[in-house]
Design a protein that fits this description.
Elements lengths: L5 E7 L3 E3 L2 E10 L4 E4 L4 E4 L4 E4 L2 E5 L6 E5 L11 E5 L5 E3 L1 E4 L5 E4 L5 E4 L2 E3 L6 E4 L6 E6 L2 E3 L6 E4 L2 E5 L2 E3 L10 E4 L3 E5 L2 E3 L6 E4 L4 E3 L11 E3 L6 E4 L3 E14 L4 E2 L24 E10 L3 E3 L9 E3 L5 E3 L11 E2 L2 E2 L27 H19 L5 H11 L14 H11 L3 H17 L3 H14 L3 H18 L2 H36 L8 H15 L8 E2 L10 E8 L3 E9 L4 E10 L2 E8 L6 E9 L2 E9 L2
Parallel strand pairs: 1-3, 2-4, 3-5, 3-6, 4-7, 5-8, 6-9, 7-10, 8-11, 9-12, 10-13, 11-14, 12-15, 13-16, 14-17, 15-18, 16-19, 17-20, 18-21, 19-22, 20-23, 21-24, 22-25, 23-26, 24-27, 25-28, 26-31, 27-32, 28-33, 32-34, 33-35
Antiparallel strand pairs: 28-29, 28-30, 36-37, 37-40, 38-39, 38-41, 41-42
Amino acid sequence: MEPPYNTWAGNITENTTWQNKVNVVDNITIQSGVNLAIAPGTYIKINPGKTITVLGTIIAKGTPTQRITFTSSNHSPSPGDWGGIIFSGGGPDTLTYCNIKYAENGLRFINTAPNSYMANDTVSNSSGYGVAVSSTGASNTALRIYKSAIKNNRTEGIRVNNARVSISNSRVENNGSGNINSGINVINAGRLFIDSSFVTNNLGSGIDVSGIGSRVSLSPDEIKRGYNTVTGHGLSEIYVRNSATALLGYRAAINYCVCDDYAFDKFVDQFSESSEIESKSPQCPPGCYPAVRYEARAGWNNVYNNFNYNCRLINNATSNTVQARYNYWGTGSLMFCGPVDTLSQLGSPVNTPAKLEGTDLYVESELTKEDRTRIREWLLQLQLDIKSNQTNSIDALYQLALYVGPGGEYSDALEMPWEFLLAYFERNSRLQNVKMLASVFLVTAKMDRGEYSNAIYIADQILQRNNDDNMWFFCQTQKVIANVGLGNVTNAISLFNAMKSRGDKIDKKSIEVLEDYLKNVSSTTNSNVKISDNTIQTVQKINIEANNIERPQTYSLEQCYPNPFNPVTKIKYTIPEPCYVLLKIFDVLGREITTLLAEHQESGYKTVELSGLSLPSGVYFYKLQSGKFLSIKKMLLTK
């Protein structure tokens, strides 16, 4: 006998498993800290207008033969029957082999933990968008989408708002019928990395990227090939506007040294005691001479259609050049508007291996030691390119942000911290668009680190000296989102209302997305209470004194003492909460020397001793990674 439906309504306050058949008759909220597991084959019907809100975590793992389905309870379902699923504040969440259909908006990921994961899912027939990801920063990947289909939704297939999203082996198709919307919309300093995927037959543009700080990369990491196909759209295949950027493929030039019998395949740049960055050639040893190596990066995408209108492939409405080498464009004319670099075009289409079946686990290939060395020398070269005002400076700055900025794996690759480098470029670059982008990254670095009050302060300082429409729009949106991060939802709404009139004239779509974001945030928080920054600080101070006055309240890494040292020095640091601590030592070339700590520690004031008995004299760096905190400092061993 077929099992009956289990009926659910209201709050879920303890760990729960759904299985077989589930009927959601009223709004459901999975409370913070609570895990909802959904068994393979579960069929979930949601009553009209009802929504599933996840403040905790959902783990919904179906199988190829037992998919999990979320759908309307109506006998004849239609788009918009139920509210969709809102992931807000918990996570990371996992959905594999799931069908989500006939919702108002399919899936909304709002300020959730990084690395939520979708694999082999289908999100379809929403009356609004299929998937929306909104966050308070873009340093970590908020959502990974793998081997999934986002299709037949009436507005966008996917929207990325001030967040980072990675899409691989997926399809985004036949969306946008409600009002000529794009397949993918990236706005408000959002970042999208897409590879091995199809973006096809959406009624508006295939990919629409808007706003200074926003970027779309048709590559998983701006190094590997893209293997995407973007085709068949009613408007431009790729639309870049309001000082945003897109990257499809480019040629990297790496300086190195050639010696008598071997290649000195490492870029060496002497560390400078001052904050000035010297632009110079590799310091080659005797008998060697500087040379340049060229590498094709990203590329191998198909972007084409059979239409005949201006800007049909790439409409770049900015002054930034879209790097688009090593791609297949089909044939015809009227393909590009604005600055687009399409040198070294491919003569035939490339294979685009987007699939919807197979393993549900996406594992990135491990980089070799040689790969990591090459990336480090490339990052050093990017720094020099920006310093010398090269034509690739904008893309170089984005790539440094990806690899060296908050959340970047190579934060120790350069000779000074990321924000110091940005301040230098902001002050000294002769290129106005580089100066502006450096200002943008100074704000987003604070956002990414959760330093929202500092982000607001920097945004206000920028507004005093630059009232360019795109910069004004960026600063205002970041202030709105920063207030959400501080818990000041009412203040965020007030700021939004104040900017809305001018913002509509600059980027109406981004205003609509920001308004939707605030509505979603308001529905999952108490937005009727305004908490000022001073109140927050006072409450924190009171809680500190009441709990444990000896416990540090911030992460910090002190300068080692003594410095210079011989042979022993002490490194002091503080952690305000229990977390995993990683402390490593590197030489001046960026090579890892040793790992001093790799363990979980309780909060407190910490000291670790380093012995340099086995090390040669020279400059070294020590890097502390703890929770969201990362800091690098220099030390000198003299013998």
